[in-house]
Amino acid sequence: MAGRTEYSPIDRRSLSADEAGQSLLSQDEKPFVFNNRSPAQRRYTAAIKAVLFLILLVVHAGLIVLLAKWLASSFLGAHAEYPAEGHDHGGTCLLRDEHTQYTFEGVIPAVYKDPDAEFLMKDPCGRTAAEARARGCRYGMLYGAWLPEACYDEETEENFRKYTNWRFWLQPNRTQELSYEEVAKGEHEYVLVEWQYHQRHCAEMGRRIFTAMSRRGLHTIDSYLSQWAHTDHCAHSVMEVRPTHELGAILWRKFPDCGVVRWKNAK
């Protein structure tokens, strides 16, 4: 019929093979590109990646070993390091020569008199072990003090004694070891103890003063227990991270006053 256009599903234009192929793809699709690398190249690349991975593992393992050694030396170090001075600390030697005798020149003994408080009993146990025994005083191992019955806390002392097998020495090189029973006689001016002893001492001192304040009364507090300086010292010491068995503290013998009447200039 004249003027009629015949329909054809394919345009009469000539299409190349590439154009015909692309026309059948959506706008978002990409033609697949084959990996032209040979099997040998792929094996080589995989081998390089494996070697780099192994090197990375070795480096990480080395860092872990170094960290472990540092932690071991920091927290489980040898017993040869001692503080130079301190409230209840002492020790001056870094050697372990069993034939060397050490002195504590310059180390300040513990202060067991409290000038900031008044007490019912002044020097109730005298100034020597013989005087203390003659006056009926008892030697407490918790802080090395000769005390009259009024200020002696049997319960706290027993808890402290049972905590572990405490050990004592007269020399920083761990020679002249003394038994618990020997030290409990109160004859020695000082003995050396491990850091664990000092930590437990501070913990029990807090319990001791709470017991006095809540149950036993102010008259059971002595002039060592009453000091703010010692309480502050213990508060800081319990936060110190040191080897448990470091021989780093001195237990000084004390002859405190007994029975707090009041604290002076209390703020």
From TrEMBL:
It comes from the Eukaryota. The chain crosses the membrane at residues 51-72. Keywords: Membrane, Transmembrane, Transmembrane helix. The keyword Transmembrane helix applies. This is Uncharacterized protein.
